[in-house]
Amino acid sequence: MPNASELSNQEPLTQNLLHTKSLSSRANDYPIILVHGLVGWGRDEFLGYRYWGGLIDIEDDLNDYGYETHTAAVGPFSSNWDRASELYAQIKGGTVDYGEAHSKEHGHDRYGRTYEGFYPEWGEMNPETGEINKVHLVGHSLGGQTIRVLTQLLAEGNIQEQELTELEQLSPLFDSEQESLVSSVFTISSPHDGSSATRLVDGLFPMTKDIIALAASSAGNTDSILYDFKLDQWGLKRGVDESFEDYAEKVYNSSIWYDTKDTAEWDTSPEGAMELNSWVGAQEDTYYFSVSTEQSYESIWSGHHKPELFMNPIFYLTSSFLGGYSESGDININHDWWENDGVVNTNSMDGPTLGSSDEIVYYNGNPQKGTWNHIGEFHSVDHLDIIGIGLYDVRDWYRSVADLLGSLQ
């Protein structure tokens, strides 16, 4: 397995960089759960255009390759706590419980949607193996933070929820009596230390609102599920006879963009990430992997990083901002933060460091539990290329990821 410096000599996404064992040497059959990032969508949205794969479908490809795989669809702008609560219900089945204490603190509904469950036997004893049924969690961008939060809550619960909630009403997600249910956490281009893009244009959500407005204007009065904001807990559920245009306008004008930190905007800021890192740690019985991406170059004139020619043009503005933004304070943002993939600072992707005691090592073919195994950095790969929305066919690479996860003991 090459280290990060050696990856610079590889053509991006054209080789199996993981060098994992073959399918015949699989050590587990745990399902793989794909978790999208900010602005992401489910498989029944966006007219069938996939978040994971674009015109192809990574979920279908991995299932055909022999790995049970499911694609989650959690709140695209929600906090990692809310997204983790939704992810738990989607995997296990049942009604989303955001927690009594959390919901009261932030002023939204405690319960959300109800799901059949991708894997209802999750957490039960497997009669064939005599072991607990686990899952592999794969998260892109914000999804990497989300799967860390879910793994933390499953392992250690939450004392505030336990103190405020009657025992018979407490979600298993928040108790502290669960067996280890997550075999591995695999993060891709994730802002573990936040992204300085949240400093742009007075924060990320004014840009988010532009995305909402664009989606509304593109959809017109269609009744189809073009995009689901999944903000039911905030009273922003789409009505039965409500057009998508009216639904998007209702979301656009909501006060949640300004009145709460219980959103992705806070979690993806450096301060929000540091706060999250202070209570979300690597669990000793879970494998942690990270992959980094970049598509910027250092200017010989200014030393700032500029977007490479073939970066997706929608990222030129944010990449240029990330490539030269500095500030001093409780968190010092300097030239170490300038390399980027158009959305996230590359130095934020290898694992949490701000407010965290987690250890990060380069993966050498022998993964360690409870430690971040940094697989390396893809060069000339932007934030969407890595999920198949861009220049590259990523199917072989995701198969190699599946082989790695399937080889874990």
Automatic annotation (TrEMBL):
Top-level division of the source organism's lineage: Bacteria
Catalytic activity: a triacylglycerol + H2O = a diacylglycerol + a fatty acid + H(+)
Enzyme class label: hydrolase
Any one Gene Ontology cellular component term annotated for this protein: extracellular region
Positions of the Lipase-like C-terminal domain: 28-396
Record SUPFAM superfamilies: alpha/beta-Hydrolases (SSF53474)
Enzyme Commission number(s) of this protein: 3.1.1.3
Subcellular location: Secreted
Keyword Disulfide bond: no
Biological-process GO terms, alphabetical: lipid catabolic process
Gene Ontology MF terms in the entry: triacylglycerol lipase activity
InterPro entries hit by this protein: AB_hydrolase_fold (IPR029058), Lip-like_C (IPR056304)
Gene3D superfamilies: alpha/beta hydrolase (3.40.50.1820)
Pfam families per record: Lip_C (PF24708)
Keywords: Hydrolase, Lipid degradation, Lipid metabolism, Secreted, Signal
Protein name (database record): triacylglycerol lipase
Gene source species: Bacillus solimangrovi
